[in-house]
């Protein structure tokens, strides 16, 4: 098989969409399933998801959140209890109508989201103030019909995600929970995936259907499109009333509860691919990389082989004891050059090359994936590799911040806005707060309000569209 068959054959800059698909498939993160709109997660892709899940679970647990499990089928009669909420999902719902050849009666929806099912149960589980707060997270799949414009990790008909649902006795406590979760999301994405995000609120038009308001974190991708990375919703009592999620207080007076819901999906993996990958393939941040270090032994004869393999295994053992995820590429049938290209395609953060001359000189060659830098290190300095991995993680976030800043501009002139939006980017532009202007901008440019950053209130500027007094400076962008 030639290099052209296994490597990335298009430039990220020239054909971003095709480049992205090739990286997903050729780096063996995922593959297409036999059913249109579905993908299969391969071990490396699933390992990244497991890493994120582990981090989130630890942080959720510190916040008093426990994991549960919900079934995938939801009766239509339950979905109808919150008509406004369900109407937002109805066009995307898959329905089960038969069991074998028999009709099931009440149609069953394949879960697009779990509010209605969870809150039906919460109304049974919550009786008094002693049962609150109730904080449960569910790791599951959701199904939404995405048949036309599918893209692995970003837009598929079934996706892995977590959805949390909390219940509180007061509005204040629920609203604090919304922000706590958003902060957990932001810190995890920036610290683990090395992707900078902007947090704030969605506009009234773009908020989660059924929520009082939606907080969000958004990122700008290298192609100039925005990607929603996660959301945390203040549901107020919009669900507790129709689902009768009530509690008796200390005086035995009954009240409707206050609720939140929040989630992230494997879309985070898609963002990581786009943010860091290059023309050679995937570039993985060390914290989530399935393999953090790969060692490639180099030798020409059996005498050299024995010495090199002995030293390689010695180094691998030291790194394993330091809890570094290490792999020794001992494939005999492949040349070192082929192996280098293969591991670069798969995005392993650090490659170590060791041959007879290196052992003679008591050194080894290190190759950093994210910037292609090569350096020599003494064989007795192997423990410094922990520091190098930490530095790579830090530098990747720093580089991503710079690229995001370069893709963000302040614009107050609408003609300039329309012209520059063709190339994409985050546009900080004043807005009057009116739905009509928001809709006209989207209709004329394809850009929508992605996020109204916290503390972006502004009444000193004029709305970019109607020139009336602004209320805030949101970020406008075209999105995935």
UniProtKB/TrEMBL annotation:
Presence of the UniProt keyword Ligase in the record: yes
SUPFAM superfamilies in alphabetical order: C-terminal domain of ProRS, Class II aaRS ABD-related, Class II aaRS and biotin synthetases
Residues covered by the Aminoacyl-transfer RNA synthetases class-II family profile domain: 5-285
GO molecular function, one term: ATP binding
GO cellular component, one term: cytoplasm
Localization per record: Cytoplasm
Keyword Hydrolase applies: no
EC number: 6.1.1.15
Catalytic activity annotation: tRNA(Pro) + L-proline + ATP = L-prolyl-tRNA(Pro) + AMP + diphosphate
Pfam families per UniProt: HGTP_anticodon, ProRS-C_1, tRNA-synt_2b
Keywords: Aminoacyl-tRNA synthetase, ATP-binding, Cytoplasm, Ligase, Nucleotide-binding, Protein biosynthesis
A GO biological process held by the record: prolyl-tRNA aminoacylation
Role according to the record: Catalyzes the attachment of proline to tRNA(Pro) in a two-step reaction: proline is first activated by ATP to form Pro-AMP and then transferred to the acceptor end of tRNA(Pro).
PANTHER family named among the record's database cross-references: BIFUNCTIONAL GLUTAMATE_PROLINE--TRNA LIGASE (PTHR43382:SF2), PROLYL-TRNA SYNTHETASE (PTHR43382)
Domain free text: Consists of three domains: the N-terminal catalytic domain, the anticodon-binding domain and the C-terminal extension.
Subunit structure, as described in the record: Homodimer.
Family recorded in the similarity comment: Belongs to the class-II aminoacyl-tRNA synthetase family. ProS type 3 subfamily.
Full protein name: Proline--tRNA ligase
Source species of the chain: Candidatus Nitrosomarinus catalinensis
Gene that encodes it: proS_2
């Amino acid at each position: 098989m030639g290099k052209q068959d296994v490597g990335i054959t298009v430039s990220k800059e020239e054909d971003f969409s095709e480049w992205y698909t090739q990286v997903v498939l050729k780096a063996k993160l995922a593959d297409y399933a036999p059913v249109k709109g579905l993908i299969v997660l391969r071990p490396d892709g699933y390992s990244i998801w497991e890493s994120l899940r582990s981090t989130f679970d630890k942080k959720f647990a510190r916040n008093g959140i426990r994991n549960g499990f919900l079934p995938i089928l939801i009766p239509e009669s339950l979905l109808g209890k919150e008509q406004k909420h369900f109407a937002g999902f109805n066009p995307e719902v898959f329905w089960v109508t038969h069991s074998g050849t028999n009709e099931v009666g009440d149609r069953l929806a394949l879960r697009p989201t779990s509010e209605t099912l969870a809150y039906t149960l919460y109304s049974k589980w919550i009786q008094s103030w002693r049962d609150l707060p109730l904080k449960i997270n569910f790791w599951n799949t959701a199904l939404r019909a995405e048949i036309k414009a599918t893209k692995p990790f970003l837009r598929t008909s079934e996706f892995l995600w977590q959805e949390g649902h909390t219940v509180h006795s007061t509005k204040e406590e629920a609203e604090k929970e919304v922000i706590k979760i958003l902060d957990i999301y932001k810190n995890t994405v920036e610290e683990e995936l090395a992707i900078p995000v902007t947090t704030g609120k969605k506009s009234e038009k773009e908020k989660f259907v059924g929520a009082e308001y939606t907080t969000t974190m958004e990122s700008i991708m290298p192609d100039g499109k925005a990607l929603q990375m996660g959301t945390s919703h203040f549901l107020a009592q919009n669900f507790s009333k129709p689902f009768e999620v009530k509690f008796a207080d200390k005086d035995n007076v009954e009240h409707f509860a206050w609720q939140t819901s929040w989630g992230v999906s494997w879309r985070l993996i898609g963002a990581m691919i786009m943010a860091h990958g290059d023309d050679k393939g995937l570039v993985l941040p060390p914290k989530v990389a399935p393999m953090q270090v790969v060692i490639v032994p180099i030798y020409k004869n059996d005498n050299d082989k024995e010495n090199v393999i002995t030293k390689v295994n010695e180094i691998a053992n030291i790194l394993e004891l330091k809890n570094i995820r290490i792999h020794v590429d001992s494939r005999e049938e492949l040349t070192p050059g082929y192996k280098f290209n293969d591991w670069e395609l798969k995005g392993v953060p650090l490659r170590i090359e060791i041959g007879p001359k290196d052992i003679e000189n008591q050194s080894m060659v290190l190759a950093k994936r994210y910037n292609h830098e090569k350096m020599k290190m003494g064989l007795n300095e192997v423990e410094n590799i922990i520091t190098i991995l930490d530095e790579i993680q830090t530098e990747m976030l720093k580089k991503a911040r710079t690229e995001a800043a370069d893709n963000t501009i302040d614009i107050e002139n609408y003609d300039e806005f329309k012209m520059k939006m063709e190339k994409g980017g985050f546009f900080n532009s004043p807005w009057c707060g009116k739905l009509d202007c928001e809709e006209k901008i989207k209709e004329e440019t394809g850009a929508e309000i992605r996020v109204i950053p916290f503390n972006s209130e502004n009444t000193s500027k004029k709305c970019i569209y109607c020139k009336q007094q602004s209320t805030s400076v949101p970020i406008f962008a075209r999105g995935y």
